[in-house]
Write a structure and sequence with these properties.
The protein has 164 residues and is mainly beta. The protein is 13% helix and 40% strand. A five-stranded mixed sheet has the order 2-8-7-4-5, with no helix packed on it.
Length: 164
């Protein structure tokens, strides 16, 4: 295969990968000085609101940058806002532990500037009301007084899976 054909093939594969792995649109949290993640992908959602299906787990990949050296304990905090009420979403400790759920072979401790991806599996209860819901996810540096490392907001809607 000629070099030009190899180049074109690589270019097409890269373009296809970009189209397949489009990011979910996100917004800053209330404190806009807190860094946004580099990328968020919610269940292959490319336009808001993202659908969260009752009785399943929403897969949320969050790519972020470590803010200091030797970060050994990071935790995720989730808040849901529906009908004007904001409630904390209690995650199981194993899901909230960022270091235990890093992808691509990454592990803690993290060093400043290190770019990693955390996979959050968010259970969506069958009893969750079918209303528009604002999802806020904060990544906290536990050893540094729960300082927020990264934060984002995304619009979602809880839906009942279609039967059939």
């Amino acid at each position: 295969m000629s070099n030009i054909k190899k180049f074109c093939l690589c270019l097409m594969l890269a373009l296809a990968w970009t189209l397949i792995s489009a990011d979910t649109p996100i917004r800053h949290c209330a404190d806009a000085s807190i860094p946004l993640p580099l990328m968020v992908q919610i269940d292959e959602c490319e336009t808001l609101p993202c659908d969260l299906w009752k009785g399943s787990e929403a897969k949320i990949d969050i790519q972020f940058v470590a803010t200091r050296n030797s970060m050994k304990q990071l935790s995720a905090e989730v808040r849901l806002t529906s009908l004007g009420m904001t409630i904390p979403y209690d995650l199981e400790a194993s899901r909230a532990n960022v270091c235990q759920n890093l992808l691509h072979g990454a592990y803690c401790p993290l060093d400043a500037g290190e770019d990693v991806t955390y996979e959050l599996l968010l259970p969506v209860a069958s009893s969750q009301p079918e209303v528009p819901t604002r999802l806020e996810v904060r990544l906290l540096d536990v050893e540094n007084g729960n300082r927020v490392v990264s934060c984002f907001v995304a619009d979602t809607r809880v839906k009942k899976p279609s039967s059939g």
